[in-house]
Model the fold of this input.
Amino acid sequence: MQYLFRLIEKLAEDDLSTVLIHGESGTGKELVAKAIHAHSERKKHNFVPVNCAAIPDDLLESELFGHTKGSFTGATSSKVGRIEYAEGGTLFLDEIGDMKPVLQAKLLRVLQEREFEPVGALKPIPVDVRVIAATHRNLEDLVSQGQFREDLYYRLSVVPVIIPPLLSQDALRTLAGCPWRGNVRELENLVQHMSILHGGKIVTREDLPPKYCETEATSQDPALPQQPGQQTIEPEQLHLFSNTHQGQEEDWPDEGIDFNAIVNDFETQLIVQALKMSDGNKKEAARILNLKRTTLLEKIKKKNIQDAWQSS
Done:
């Protein structure tokens, strides 16, 4: 994290280069983008965030580039897009990996030519804006799959910034299995304890106080009654995959496995289980899965599993 702070300072000094921020959901990608803007010469102008996954595809172009009066049905007046609104400041494109190819091409022109065309306009408009993009997805994989333009990827990734997660998976599983008799106060004390002793690096299971490692096998304290309707999640949702032979390589077929299909099925089952636990409440399901609500909605739409939880 100390390295990240120093990098933010350097990026603020050079307020022209595009920045691509990588990090899991919840690691603070927008906070980093805001910090870069706030410490740069552009702080006197607007910081304009755009969530590319939250805005429908048919509206995103107009939101970004604006439109002229009469450019399409319903365009009763001209509209300033967010690129133009960010003039002199910073445009933050969150979840850039979800942007469709046709808009990727138009964004590339903004970065290369420093100009853009509103929907329905006949001539380009020059713009002075710094672009900071963020994603939780692997853009290199998307490039190899033909879902993201290679030239745009390299144009965005002039200065890549990687935000580390707070905990290792082992530490997360261990803490998830603790009874937490002291509730929020106990959690707050542990966070303070860990930040003092292990500041600036990822917390591993070995860094946790011994008492938390000793109780990891108990996901529900037997001394405390289970509240009506309360459900617990086993580490890594293992109960969803009891029919698989984890770790038994001799059961694998000689021709190998379809890795992408298995990962997709794994993800689908996790989403369905979270929807079951939340009785279809997508906001609560997103919280259970530690995903942004917009990210979960996109996955549900792509997998066409809107009602699958009701019959599973």
User: Anything to note?
Assistant: The longest helix spans residues 259-277.
